[in-house]
TrEMBL record:
PROSITE patterns from the UniProt entry: SAM_OMT_II
Record's protein name: O-methyltransferase C-terminal domain-containing protein
Pfam families: Methyltransf_2
O-methyltransferase C-terminal domain mapped to chain residues: 199-435
InterPro entries: COMT-like (IPR016461), COMT_C (IPR001077), SAM-dependent_MTases_sf (IPR029063), WH-like_DNA-bd_sf (IPR036388), WH_DNA-bd_sf (IPR036390)
Signal peptide residues on this chain, from the entry's feature table: none
Keywords recorded for this protein, A-Z: Methyltransferase, S-adenosyl-L-methionine, Transferase
UniProt xrefs under PANTHER family: O-METHYLTRANSFERASE CICE, PUTATIVE (AFU_ORTHOLOGUE AFUA_4G14580)-RELATED
A GO biological process held by the record: methylation
Amino acid sequence: MAHAELDRLQACLNFALDTLRNEMNNSQLPPLSQQSLVEHPLDDSTKYLPSTGVFEARRLSLACLGELKNLIQSPLDKCMDERFAIYGVACTDTLIKTGIIDYLSDVPNASQGVPAAELASKFELDSKKLVPILRCCAASGWVRETRDSSFALNRCSRTFIEGNAGRRLNFSMPGHMSVIETIPHWVAESDWKLSRSPEQTAFQIAFNTPLLAFSWIVENPDVLVPIADHLQVFGDMSTPSIVADYPWQQLQTPVIVDCGGGQGGLISSILDAHPSFRAIVQDMENVVALTSSIMEERRPRDIESGVLKVEAHDFFQPQPRIGNEYSFILRHIMHDWPDKEATTILGNVARALGPKSKILIIDMVAVPNVDSTATTSVKSLMLDSRAKGPDYRIPSHFGSASRIVSGSSMHMLTMINGCERSLREWEKLVKGCGLRITNVYPLRAHTSIIECALDTRALM
Ligand SMILES: C[S@@+](CC[C@H](N)C(=O)[O-])C[C@H]1O[C@@H](n2cnc3c(N)ncnc32)[C@H](O)[C@@H]1O
């Protein structure tokens, strides 16, 4: 009997995995291993930029796996899986908070693992609680149970060691779970259920505050530093691809202005790769104080010579850098804001543009979850385009591999009534500011570069 969908996904997965293996060999990457304790280059996208082939084959493999799971898992198991997923977050948080992750990374013979009883006595914890927590982490691939009730770190959990990227990439702040719990009430019953104001979200209800999420964070120094650190890692995940995959040499303006540029990590990487540019990092007053001290330490000569400037600017006010000298970057800014505020921010930059200027919006492009197919990225993997193979199509939103985009959209929605926009939504927003999209550059990351310029056609 033909099992059309199963056969198609199986063929697609085989194709994707074969391609991944070949592309990894071409890039001279070592094999992936869950038994290994050593970080793999592909584990940290802030440091290693995979070839397009590796990136696409990995994404396609994950999309096929997700689609296969959706196809064969029973709805009841899916319910349990989803409801229980939340414990995974609490379990990895527990391993970090107790110090168990750092301890396991330091023990002699780390690959043999440590009995839970020993961990319990070392950290004055209850082993009856620790074993299920560690097993929950093992089920998600975060640790390895080496013998009954003994556990070791694996390659993946190294990201949670102090100082490493996964440890810093921490979406949750104290009370964040209560924001998530509030969503059904906010959306279905609350007085704000039809409000699109950034000050009337699940965040304000759960935190019982009238403050905008950004203002609340700034007023709470305990969360400000971890969140700034989190945003830095989140940004760094796309920086290598932004630097490599955008044709910077074609920019006709000598100065790049990074609006809401945070700690200046992106502009630093662009200047390193393209030293002919000058750059300006703009952010809120209290943020630029930190950015200035970081840049003075890391790039003293650029600051002294004026190649790099750091300045306070509120992007809700008119942009002071006007004309053909300047192009602008807005990375992870627009998704923070609802359409009304996003239009104000983009409009302020648009009004400062000269005919040669560009605005580079760097954000996710959400693909509607309709049943269209992703043939283009699959085609780019078909090295021999004459090869007539099985049907390799998968949904264009990459199935469950799009959960990072849909999850990010939910995060923005609940915190500030923002969202990840589809290309149609980007086009509408950009057009409303007197701009046009001149190109969209897909990145080897979750985001794309939406390049915009003045829509001179509108003036004709
Ligand atoms: C999500 S972070 C992105 C940071 C940086 N663009 C990056 O990609 O790493 C948003 C940034 O917008 C800044 N921001 C928020 N409101 C602002 C405002 N009214 N004017 C200027 N910057 C603002 C925040 O301080 C923060 O640095």
